[in-house]
Amino acid sequence: MLVLRPVELTDLPELQRLARESLVGVTSLPDDTERLRRRIVDSGASFENDVQGNGPENYFFVLEDPSTRRLAGCSEILATAGFNEPFYSLRNRHFTSASRELNIEHGVPALSLCHDLSGHTLLRGFHIDAALVRTPASELLSRARLLFIAAHSRRFADTVITEIVGFSDDEGGSPFWDALGKHFFDLPYAEAERLCGLESRTFLAELMPQYPIYVPMLPQAAQDCIGRIHPDGQDAFDILQREGFETNNYIDLFDGGPTLYARTSNIRSIAQTQAGVAHSGLAIDARGSYLVSNDSLKDYRAIVADLDYRPGQPVTLDARMCAALKVTQGSPIRLIAL
User: Fold this and answer.
1) Model's pTM, two decimal places?
2) Residues 65, 9: Cα–Cα separation, whole Å
3) Is residue 192 located within the same domain as residue 236?
4) Residues 311 and 199 placed together within one structural domain of the fold
5) Which residues are catalytic?
């Protein structure tokens, strides 16, 4: 059984392994010991903080096999993108020009540097072992964050966004970056993403062109990358799309990957989550698979379980499930079908 829980300092060696295996573009998971250590400490403080609104808190979760202590993945929630510094992206929209004399009106798509998405809650840092892609474990790693938001809604914004990693080739090159960002930094795509993970995207964004970039002037290979998902990012995209997230007019300023957006109250795992109480039992006549979580803050836990769930009645969990969730008889839990 895999369990999602908050990260701990003892996870650092395993987290470094995940960072080395993660996809280029997952900048919130840098392969740097001190940065990861700081990320863990900051997350621990976020779970401890008594807050009444969305602030700079970052909630870092890991997916663990308790029997081996091996981590199978990780994911995060940043309560407020752009709280301490602007959260930069590229806005993709049409600019219209017209001539009365020629009776011509023409729209041209253009990319503009902006920080419109500052203030939204941001899902980031999603990484899972390749063998678990498109399995219930992948759903757990992504969607259990949403159950956490449902249980502690005051800590988060009314809207949630996430950036999906854009296309890069097998050698780690990005046609979008090569056509745009590389001209201003003279850095390969992978190195720019690494620097973004180690420092911040602000100093990089400040060197980007401040005027609109007309899309038709970019090479066709770069145009084809706008809104294109890296194949290894498709699972993360599909899970959140099923949750009700939609693409918008914003893309990542490094690789052109799409941004997903949703009103918090409309997200499936938040709007349709069922609250219940735990009942410790021996045998379960399972009728379906569910994501199940406790309602704790710093002791938050979530699992996938086969249950006989009946609305309005206690939820029977066996001893192993109760131990994994850190719940006892009568403890509040929440669940939603896979």
Assistant:
1) 0.91
2) 17
3) yes
4) no
5) 230
